[in-house]
Design a protein that fits this description.
With 257 residues, the protein is an alpha/beta fold. It has 11 helices and 8 strands.
Length: 257
């Protein structure tokens, strides 16, 4: 670790759950972030500032003016130039921390390209805005034994949970597709406030750091949910993994088969 890095991460060195050893672990870690929008850009910001050595960003969209209300990595110039989010994010992340590697991939996660884009990392972070992508992430994560952190925000509400293959129920266990039929609320339909995004992404980034540091003792065990406008915070106790779950029980991986 260089003298400049030692100065940069000095506050991490003082934090007893990280220290110098933990910082070196973060430097050697590899993370994939699916989606570089509201939650994804905040997650990338946290990972870069925390010194995660390799960040893969996967997003097919361009920066738009309507993004600037909540997507912290982008500027008006990015929107005017119609830059791809993954490409613009790389520029800003390296301006924040030139010691890291950023791998931008201008793509949308599909069943065909998911394993190519989501393997070879220690952790997958959810910055998506749709259920299908999350089921795809979940299949890849369980099949390849990669932890992933679910994060979602809409309106002033949000949810977050770290999924650890083999040690927690999977996303498919908790949200069976048959029970998710009908239109879901989206930011395009009901809006979203920036603080809700920031809080959910910060909670997810904290769980990400625990996973990368191997601190299973302090990982949360319940699904966190919140409504910032109402000032409400809560936890939902989760059941056990389902033996007949097509993903983690039967290992059929229906969303990437």
């Amino acid at each position: 670790m260089t003298p400049e890095e030692t100065l940069r991460y000095s506050r991490h060195f003082l934090f007893r759950h990280i220290g110098r050893k933990g910082q070196l672990q973060l430097k050697d870690s590899r993370v994939a972030i699916v989606g570089a929008g509201a939650i994804g850009s905040m997650l990338a910001n946290h990972m870069a500032r925390s010194g995660v050595g390799y960040i893969r960003l996967i997003d097919a969209d361009q920066v738009e003016t309507s993004n600037l209300q909540r997507q912290v990595l982008y500027t008006e110039a990015d929107a005017e130039a119609h830059l791809e989010k993954a490409v613009a994010a790389k520029t800003h992340l390296l301006a924040i921390n030139h010691h890291i590697e950023v791998d931008p991939r201008v793509a949308r996660i599909t069943s065909d390209n998911a394993e190519e884009n989501l393997t070879g990392v220690d952790l997958i972070l959810d910055g998506t805005d749709n259920l299908e992508a999350r089921f795809i992430i979940n299949d890849v994560a369980v099949k390849n034994g990669i932890p992933w952190v679910y994060a979602a925000a809409v309106g002033s509400r949000g949810m977050m949970f770290p999924f650890i293959p083999g040690r927690s129920p999977c996303f498919h266990c908790l949200f069976p597709p048959s029970q998710m039929e009908g239109p879901a609320e989206s930011c395009d339909a009901v809006g979203v406030i920036s603080p809700a995004v920031a809080v959910v992404a910060s909670l997810a980034a904290t769980e990400a750091m625990k996973i990368l540091l191997g601190d299973e003792e302090h990982l949360i065990r319940h699904l966190r949910h919140l409504d910032l406008w109402r000032g409400e915070f809560g936890e939902l106790k989760l059941g056990k993994a389902r033996a007949n779950c097509p993903t983690c029980g039967l290992h059929e991986y229906p969303f990437i088969a």
